[in-house]
């Protein structure tokens, strides 16, 4: 079997969501499902799905774990999530991507030729929580608890490809996230939901 066919997904669902009034952001709803539910749906074919964050509702069969220390940031969360990964390939995602699709995840995995491949948005910004990685390379990069806390610094030594996926006119970008009330309202409007 092609090693890229078998993969795991690590979804980072921590953070304090201060700009959203401290609400449990992964459990906010866009388009009839939670933000976290949308991301987990996009990786439904993963061998293992791991959510890293505080106690919250997850689908049956999904591993829920917590970084050490709690609230320790994305590198600590990634280290905790990778402990549950037993595949050669891992997809790393943010929990607030309501328009992520299985097709995009599949294309990322197909494009994985070196240590990793990540999405670059329409402004040219690297989306570090929207990528596919060789598990061994990523695990080695985050292994040192005393190492850098910023994810872009941790992966800077890896051999990473970047991909700017095309976005069809009138369709939401897969990297559209929901960090502020305005972004959440925009996502809900795109999904045809009332703003409240």
Automatic annotation (TrEMBL):
Highest taxon in the source lineage: Bacteria
SUPFAM superfamilies found in the cross-reference section: Nucleotide-diphospho-sugar transferases
Keywords: Cytoplasm, GTP-binding, Magnesium, Metal-binding, Molybdenum cofactor biosynthesis, Nucleotide-binding, Nucleotidyltransferase, Transferase
Gene3D superfamilies with a match to the protein in the record: Spore Coat Polysaccharide Biosynthesis Protein SpsA, Chain A
CDD domains given in the database record: MobA
Domain MobA-like NTP transferase stretches: 9-151
Gene Ontology molecular functions: molybdenum cofactor guanylyltransferase activity
Entry's EC annotation: 2.7.7.77
UniProt xrefs under Pfam families: NTP_transf_3
Stored InterPro entries: MobA-like_NTP_Trfase (IPR025877), Molybde_CF_guanTrfase (IPR013482), Nucleotide-diphossugar_trans (IPR029044)
Record-given protein name: Molybdenum cofactor guanylyltransferase
Organism of provenance: Blastococcus carthaginiensis
